[in-house]
Amino acid sequence: MRKILMVARRDYLATVRTKGFIVGLVLAPVLMSGGLIVMALFRDRTDPRDRHVAVVDRSGLVADALLRAAAERNARDTVAAPGRPRQAAYLLEVVRPNDRDPMLQRLLLSDRVRAKELHAFVEVGPHALHPGRDTTERHLAYHSQNAALDETRGWIAGQVSATLRQRRLLEAGIDTATVPDLFASFGGTPLGLLTRDPATGRITDAAKRDEGAAIFVPMALMLLMFMMLMWGAMPQLNATMQEKSQRIAEVVLGSVRPFEFMAGKLLGGVAIALTASAVYVGVGLYALTVLGLTGLMPLSVVAWFFVYMLLAVAMYGALFAAVGAACNDPIEAQSVSFVAMMPMILPTFLLLPVVTQPNGAFATGMSLVPLWTPMLMLMRQATPGGVPAWQPWVALAGVVATTLLFVWAGGRVFRVAILMQGTPPKLQNFVRWAFRG
Fold it and tell me: b vs e for 189-219, b when ≥16 Cβ sit within 10 Å of the residue's Cβ?
């Protein structure tokens, strides 16, 4: 045990004493969440250039209403105000329909868009008021160079739909002015469940649930778990390969057994991940306390995070150490590293299915797979409502068993491969070394 601790201490201090470790503690969360930060910073940053849009109204019903709506919007939104940037003006040009050759008219308008004279052109079909079930005709067509992601398209579609809706009501003899809330809609306020105090019998009203927080907390825990695996487990591959190729392992193995060498490296990786995660979790809990949002992160979930994290680093660390011991040079390590990382990366693709339906059959089944339990089960536990009490314990038993299997098999592979030169890292070699030694 003393030799294992010596190897672990060497690897641990060699990492945490470097400036790169300190810089990584600061930059890693910024890089991992960089997309969200950029989206938040530039959410209201839009192109302020005016949008010139041609309107071809073949129905003869919406052009005037569009002009009025655009004038009202321009007067309201195109004036810059403190904390609100200036919005682009919508400058509409009504074009008389060419019923004799509509394709030629569309081509000419497309040429004007390509020449930057127009931002887009929109065409309202002749039967837009009563489209029926005819799906062959384009009742509202929007043409631009980036029509699928053009926010102007959504505004125009909304105005055309509202105008045609009012026309249909007038034909039915209903004046919308007399029923102002005719089309009032409700999104449904997200609320939790009511509770009763067992001591006093008092009923506590349901608290409002924030949709962003419901997704942010599980996602943050999953990203943090992934970061810890990248820090504590992934480096085992390159570190072991370098020590083998530089003959350092041969010197070390003169004093310790191969399994002690690998166990020490795994323990060092666990200590590195534990140090970094303690910093992040501590800072995160402090921030939630200051903001008065401690209810978003139950302490039981924090405890489960550390349990899953320690086992996951040991499990994946054994896998990467065994793979690194079988590699002879950086080229081989690079070729097999992505394959070894695939089980660790896969849970990041399942974020939305697991968060939106945490107790569905798919999420439950995937989270009970030991390789993915540390991320997926943790995400499910962090969602409002949690999971059945038995599932984390069953999943934990699977992770413990799988970790012991990986450490055992990885130790056997490590023992053979660390001193073997010239043998390529093939799957059949890993299987033979793991079971036959």
Answer: eeeeeeeeeeeeeeeeeeeeeeeeebbbbbb
